[in-house]
Specification:
The complex is a heterotrimer.
Chain A: H1 4-19, H2 25-31, H3 37-50, H4 55-63, E1 67-69, E2 75-78, E3 84-86, E4 102-103, H5 108-121, H6 128-140, H7 147-156, H8 160-176, H9 181-194, H10 197-203, H11 212-261, H12 269-290, H13 298-320, H14 329-351, E5 367-370, E6 373-376, H15 377-399, H16 401-411, H17 413-418, H18 423-445, H19 457-470, H20 475-515
Antiparallel strand pairs in A: 1-2, 1-4, 2-3, 5-6
Helix pairs in contact in A: 1-2, 2-3, 3-5, 4-5, 5-6, 6-8, 7-8, 8-9, 9-10, 9-11, 11-15, 11-18, 11-19, 11-20, 12-13, 12-14, 12-18, 13-18, 15-16, 15-18, 16-18, 19-20
Chain B: H1 5-27, H2 35-61, H3 68-87, H4 100-104, H5 120-144, H6 149-168, E1 180-181, E2 185-186, E3 189-190, H7 194-220, H8 222-232, H9 234-239, H10 244-270, E4 272-273, H11 280-293, H12 299-318, H13 323-337, H14 341-355
Antiparallel strand pairs in B: 1-4, 2-3
Chain C: H1 2-22, E1 28-34, H2 42-61, E2 69-75, H3 81-94, E3 99-102, H4 106-119, E4 123-125, E5 138-140, H5 149-157, E6 166-172, H6 175-190, E7 198-203, H7 211-220, E8 227-232, H8 235-247, E9 257-259, H9 264-267, E10 279-282, H10 291-304, H11 313-332, H12 337-343, E11 348-350, E12 356-358, E13 366-367, E14 370-374, E15 380-385, E16 390-391, E17 405-408, E18 414-418, E19 423-424
Parallel strand pairs in C: 1-2, 1-3, 3-4, 4-5, 6-7, 6-8, 8-9, 9-10
Antiparallel strand pairs in C: 10-14, 11-12, 13-16, 14-15, 17-18, 18-19
Helix pairs in contact in C: 2-11, 3-4, 11-12
Classes of the chains: A mainly alpha, B mainly alpha, C alpha/beta.
Chain lengths: 530, 364, 429
């Protein structure tokens, strides 16, 4: 608060000014750096109320942290290149050195005020998208003083979506005002029809209203919203479950090959996933340094890289270690455990032990709503990606010559060898395929989880559960296992809590295996006993 | 023969340890065996007993349990509960009945499952009964349903994982993530005292010897023959009229109890028991001890446990930054290079030297 | 012959394990560093090991201590709690270190406590923790709950902080969040917050699927009252938590999240842009502009050879603790633990934010408290700070079981003295 002394004077002048209802724009801007955050928020409100056309630029600069103070106390807006222009009249102030400038600091309270103020100022913006955002903001920060502004915006509005939202915003503001009961009842009805969290936020404070009619209307509105939300909540749980299932599927499907099909207890599976995630990190680093424009494509580029890196490590593991252990399946556990320790430590040595930042490209960020269902883009893409990987894998196994050879070798090695299949090569390729898919999983997981040397450890137990629950040796079983465990988990979580929910799932798996000792989709036939 | 050559050598070694360590630590001038080493050896011996327990089910009965750490931890918790009650009013809140962590989470009464743990005999019987009962119930369902192979391994892993999550919960009343710590004494003996440490180490050695003898007695008996038979050809054994699930259940329960004893001896020596002992990685490590030492040899399992634990102790001190490379490489090389484990390799090498001396080194 | 071989092997083993003590060198003072370099905690603790190595190197460049060079002894307890106790014993009784700097999690501290008491050595513990403990052999240089949690809540209740009325206490299910949330709950109730306006949630370690929890927070936050989340979520689970918050559009302006375990280091693994405005409460931020801090950051960049490496609060706690130890050793003229323990209370050492921290008789230190908002460059912008330094209180006055307890190792020689009964409840020399 280094401006405190200087600011106090400005502020004093200002308080007098606003009281007189004639706040001068220049004085308001000059007062921005002064006082506490709540003082600043107040000035922001006043700026919005001033209706001055210059206010929007100042507020946008404040939100973007571009509003600075020169040593002589002039408030300036600094652009990307460091050129400063006076905030009040746009006079050029040259390009002052960064350490010459003081920031006009913002905190959440100021940011909130700025957002609301920008909303007020853009209600009549020519761009409908901006008007929609402004209307949304008006609903969120409903304020009786804004009713007139909203009314005039409503009258001029042509876009039906914006119009509907504005009407709801007006209703929310009416509820906060001392409008007549009839108006309030109409507003309650309108918001009840909206039926989401924003409506609850507007309605809930009125549940204890003086007027019994209003209180009653609010209560029944809230009850009807709760009922709608309960139904949407079920759908939301299904979505969450499918999303968790897709993550489990990705993590497990590679293991379904190496463990399920080949019978190798591959404890290094989690580390192969981790390698995929680090490959993504490395690709993004290169892109950041050399071709920032490609960032949105980074995952598309990283996927093949991760597949090749993890696949190559997989082939190396198979050729170097697992090959010597066929016929001793349980000992693969021991050797691959050793490999997993080495891989973890290698990554720790190369990349450091802390988390690495893997950015979300634009198309993986944020969410959209479907009814009241909120769907985050990254989860949706991961679900699509998981299903795509699964489909491709299935096609490779069922429709290609190499897939045929893989199935032949795993079903009857000796016979396959007699038919002229080079079993060693097929083994290496199969293991590499499983490992490569683990690498692909790492690309997806890097978007939602830590990219750290411990990444793999968090998924290895779950992956084995999924494969065994679905039935080792059956790819479809892994699919069904992943999604059923995901959905079951997400339905248990709200009632039992995250910890107990997981325990119940594990106990469920144990009991299920008693009923079906070979998993959901048991492999039948002679190969089973082999 | 109950005591064959390898068991004899091992027991003799244990006997030497039991004589040399107390003498060196307590009586000889200059204390050639530091107390630090006593605690370390005691810990290794507990691991060794745990490995023998696993070898009994895996080596002789083909049940690859990836959840044996659970039985170990349960035995440890039973002992830990007794040690907690022994603290009495010497905890930080000076509550005469409630352990500190219960005062901490605002409990007013001792929950029913803590009753009786102020008596050593009760805790000691729980050390056997709780892991035994869990193994019995788990085995009863599992073996009757003929769950076998990797399916069995993975659900034992699910069991220990679920227990870990459960014990992490503070509402369970076992101290949550911190577990049980800050023990003061056992049966009136101060746990910090050198004499107690030596006593516990000697007790661990005796328990290991007893465990080895028991396991050996089981495996050389008629019952042991059936076990090996069902390990190698389960269906055939069943067709011959043996109730294989009964044999499996018996050996699984005995093994769990042995693991429980190992845990109970381990806790007072390391001074803490917490849910991370249930973690699946710990159970996998037990399997690795056995595989490394030599599966199905009992003595080898014990040796494997001691070797790996020793390697960890030394490497984490010598190469703190890169020791995982060394440990990982050791697992890989032993698996590929020594298929019968360290013990098998040792005996194989020994047998070769006896039978025919290696041909003289070839000229380079 | 076999017998002899066994005997030989046992003797070899003994010498192998006892080896370090044979090399004990009188020209150096050994300092133990007990931080996990592998396993789940390596992610946080490795940095502290590096920071300690840097501090020791700097001290040696200044001429060492008592005319001797300091020699760091690094071991890896591998995030394994019993191994912590074993390694602590090894450091003290085999390597004969003068003091140990280490531990991060509460359970690791609990695990090594009996060892430090039995062998009478010194542990400096540099991480914020739940309090409810004060031991003669341990010096706590991280924040106690009253130096982090309570000021953070005060700020959020203030007008500047948004006048928050409704609270979500979200934590990982272990003792630090449990205790902190209990203290906060009692504190909030005492401030007139209705129990309906407090929601407490726990998730397991390493929790990665936050969809349900975040949507629960959003629903709780839409009751028309200003809502904030107080997060005691542990290290690993934070990245997926914040990613989900960002993606589900929980904006700091609407529902701010104030965290006690998220610092610069954790943020380095995240894209901070969607998180701007979320808060953290610490006793130090890298962005604080003081000459001491600038020198420390420069030295850190130079030492690690990486000018992107961030500094964080536990590093500052390690810095303060190390300097206090150095001063106390100089004051006592020896590294003898009893004399150093006696010399430490009252010792002052500069912190990196321009103040002078003091070791109190309760073995906690005085620290300033800062609330920072996340900026889009991954740093924190301080939006609030306490006036002056806050003394650490191990025993919370808001919990019924500890409200009567005080700790004073100088006058009372007791870590848990009951003011009402006028007795020491047992934690004594």
């Amino acid at each position: 608060m280094r401006f405190l002394l200087r600011a106090a004077l400005v502020l004093l002048a200002l308080v007098g000014g606003t009281a007189a209802g004639a706040a001068d724009f220049g004085a308001l801007v000059a007062a921005l750096p002064a006082g506490s955050y709540s003082d600043r928020a107040k000035v922001v409100d006043d700026l919005a109320q001033s209706g001055d056309p210059r206010a929007l630029a100042v507020l946008n600069a404040l939100a973007a942290d571009d509003l600075k103070v020169m040593p002589d106390g002039t408030v300036v807006i600094v652009d990307d290149k460091g050129a400063a222009k006076a905030a009040v009249d746009g006079t050029d102030k040259g390009t002052p050195a960064a350490d010459q400038l003081d920031r006009v600091k913002v905190n959440n309270a100021v940011r909130r005020a700025v957002r609301t103020a920008i909303g007020v100022l853009t209600l009549r913006d020519p761009d409908p998208a901006k008007r929609l955002a402004a209307a949304r903001e008006a609903l969120r920060a409903a304020d009786p003083d804004q009713i007139d502004a909203v009314d005039s915006a409503l009258a001029a509005e042509t876009d039906p979506a914006v119009k509907a939202l504005l009407a709801e915003a007006r209703a929310a503001a009416v509820l906060k005002s001392d409008a007549p009961a009839a108006d309030q009842l109409a507003a309650i009805k309108l918001l009840a029809a909206r039926g989401d969290d924003a409506a609850i936020a507007a309605l809930a404070p009125l549940a204890g209203a003086q007027n019994p009619e209003i209180a009653q209307a609010v209560k029944s509105a809230l009850a009807s919203i709760a009922e709608t939300q309960r139904l949407w909540g079920l759908a939301q749980n299904v979505w969450f479950g499918l999303s968790l299932g897709s993550v489990l599927l990705l993590a497990a499907v590679g293991l379904a090959i190496t463990f399920g099909v080949m019978g190798v207890i591959n404890m290094a599976h989690g580390e192969l996933v981790m390698l995929g995630a680090y490959s993504t990190f490395a690709v993004q680093q290169v892109i950041r340094l050399h071709a920032p424009g490609l960032f949105d494509w980074s995952l598309v580029i990283a996927a093949p890289v991760a597949f090749v890196v993890a696949g190559a490590v997989g082939v190396a593991i198979e050729r170097g270690i697992v090959r010597h252990l066929y016929g001793r399946p349980l000992e693969t556990l021991l050797a691959t455990w050793g490999v997993s320790l080495i891989l973890q430590q290698a990554v720790r040595t190369i990349f450091g032990p802390d988390n690495r930042e893997v950015g979300n490209p634009g198309w993986m960020s944020g969410a959209f709503t479907l009814g009241q269902l909120q769907i985050t883009w990254n989860r949706l893409w991961i679900l699509i990606f998981a299903l795509a990987v699964f489909a491709v894998l299935l096609a490779v196994l069922k429709r290609t010559p190499i897939g045929l050879q893989m199935r032949a070798v795993t079903q009857n090695r000796a016979m396959a060898a007699n038919m002229g299949i080079r079993t060693g090569r097929v083994d290496a390729l199969t293991f590499g395929l499983g490992a490569g898919i683990a690498g692909l999983a790492g690309v997806a997981l890097s978007q939602i989880d830590n990219v750290s040397p411990n990444l793999g450890q968090g998924y290895i137990v779950d992956s084995f559960m999924v494969v065994v629950f679905g039935g080792a040796g059956n790819i479809w079983g892994t699919l069904a296992g992943a999604f059923s465990l995901g959905v079951a988990n997400k339905f248990l979580e709200p009632f039992a809590g995250a910890v107990l929910g997981k325990i119940l799932i594990l106990v469920g798996i144990i009991l299920f295996i008693q009923k079906r000792p070979r998993g959901l989709f048991a492999v039948k036939g002679r190969s089973v006993e082999a | 023969m109950l005591i064959d050559r390898r068991l004899g050598i091992f027991l003799a070694g244990l006997f030497v340890l039991v004589v040399v360590v107390p003498a060196g630590n307590l009586w000889l001038a200059g204390q050639p065996v530091p107390t630090y080493l006593v605690a370390l050896i005691g810990k290794y011996l507990c691991y060794a007993l745990l490995a023998v327990a696993l070898d009994l089910v895996w080596g002789f009965c083909g049940i690859l349990s990836l959840g044996h750490g659970a039985f170990f931890a349960l035995g440890g918790y039973a002992m830990g509960m007794y040690l907690m009650r022994e603290i009495g009013d010497r905890g930080v809140y000076a509550n005469p009945t409630l352990p500190d962590f219960m005062v901490f989470i605002g409990w007013k009464q001792l929950p029913w499952y803590w009753w009786g743990f102020d008596h050593f005999w009760f805790a000691a019987s729980m050390v056997l009964l709780v892991p035994g009962a869990l193994a019995f119930v788990f085995g009863w369902f599992t073996f009757r349903s003929r769950v076998a192979g990797v399916y069995l391994s993975i659900i034992t892993q699910a069991m220990t994982y679920a227990l870990m999550l459960a014990f992490f919960r503070n509402e369970m009343g076992f101290g949550g993530n911190n577990g049980l710590t800050d023990f003061k004494d056992v049966l009136g003996y101060d746990l910090g005292g050198g004499g107690t440490k030596v006593g516990l180490m000697v007790l661990s050695a005796v328990a290991l010897a007893a465990g080895l003898l028991l396991a050996r007695a089981i495996t050389v008996s008629r019952l042991g023959k059936v076990l090996v038979c069902l390990r190698d050809a389960e269906s055939r054994t069943r067709f011959l009229g043996y109730r294989v699930e009964h044999y499996k259940l018996f050996i699984f329960t005995v093994s769990a109890m042995m693991a429980g004893v190992a845990g109970a001896l381990y806790v007072p020596q390391v001074g803490i028991i917490n849910p991370s002992e249930f973690s699946p990685a710990n159970s996998i490590e037990i399997v690795i001890w056995v595989a490394l030492g030599g599966r199905g040899t009992l003595v080898g399992a014990a040796l494997g446990a001691i070797l790996v634990a020793l390697a960890k102790t030394l490497l984490t001190g010598w190469l703190p930054e890169v020791w995982l490379f060394a440990l990982g490489a050791m697992f890989v090389l032993v698996t590929i290079g020594l298929p019968t484990g360290v013990l098998g390799a040792l005996e194989g090498g020994l047998a070769r030297t006896r039978r025919a001396p290696e041909p003289a080194e070839r000229e380079a | 012959m076999n017998f002899a071989r066994n005997l030989f092997a046992a003797a070899g083993l003994a010498t192998l394990l006892a080896a370090p003590s044979a090399q004990a060198d009188d020209d150096t003072i050994k300092v133990g560093i007990l931080h996990s370099l592998s396993g789940t905690m390596a992610i946080s603790e490795t940095t502290l090991k590096d920071a300690m190595l840097m501090l020791i190197a700097e001290q040696n460049a200044k001429g060492g201590l008592l005319g001797k060079k300091l020699e760091p002894v690094v071991v890896d307890p591998a995030s394994n709690w019993p191994l912590f106790a074993e390694k602590a014993r090894e450091l003290i009784s085999q390597d004969h270190v003068a003091a140990v700097f280490g531990c991060w999690t509460s359970v690791s501290r609990k695990s090594v406590l009996p060892v430090f008491k039995e062998l009478d050595s010194i542990l400096f513990y540099p991480v914020q923790y739940e309090g409810q403990e004060s031991e003669r052999n341990v010096f706590y240089t991280g924040a106690a709950p009253n130096q982090q949690a309570i000021p953070a809540v005060d700020y959020l209740m203030s007008k500047d902080g948004g006048s928050v009325k409704r609270w979500v206490l979200e934590g990982t299910d272990y003792v630090y969040p449990r205790t902190t949330n209990k203290i906060l709950e009692a504190y909030l109730l005492s401030k007139g917050v209705s129990p309906d306006d407090i929601m407490i949630n726990y998730t397991p370690f390493g929790f990665s699927d936050w969809q349900t929890e975040v949507s629960k927070i959003k629903a709780f936050g839409s009751a028309g009252k200003k809502t904030a989340v107080v997060s005691t979520v542990n290290g690993d689970a934070n990245v997926p938590f914040y990613k989900e918050l960002g993606n589900q559009g929980v904006k700091a302006e609407d529902i701010p999240v104030v965290a006690f375990s998220v610092g610069e280091e954790e943020l380095a693994g995240l894209d901070p842009k969607p998180l701007v405005g979320h808060l953290a409460a610490w006793n130090y931020f890298e962005s604080i502009d003081t000459p001491e801090n600038k020198a420390f950051i420069d030295a850190w960049h130079k030492f690690t050879g990486n000018d992107k490496r961030v500094t964080n609060d536990p590093m500052e706690a390690a810095y303060i603790g190390f300097n206090m130890w150095v001063k106390a050793v100089e004051k006592a003229g020896t590294t003898d633990p009893d004399k150093v323990i006696a010399a430490l209370p009252g010792t002052q050492a500069p912190n990196l934010t321009g103040g002078m921290s003091e070791m109190l008789p309760n073995h906690h230190i005085t620290k300033p408290v800062y609330i920072g908002e996340i900026q889009d460059n991954g740093q924190f912008d301080v939006v609030w700070q306490t006036k002056g330094l806050i003394p650490g209180e191990p025993w919370s006055p808001y919990l019924p079981e500890s409200k009567d307890l005080v700790s004073d190792w100088v006058k009372l020689n007791c870590g848990n003295y009951d003011k009402v009964k006028n007795t020491c409840l047992g934690a004594t020399n």
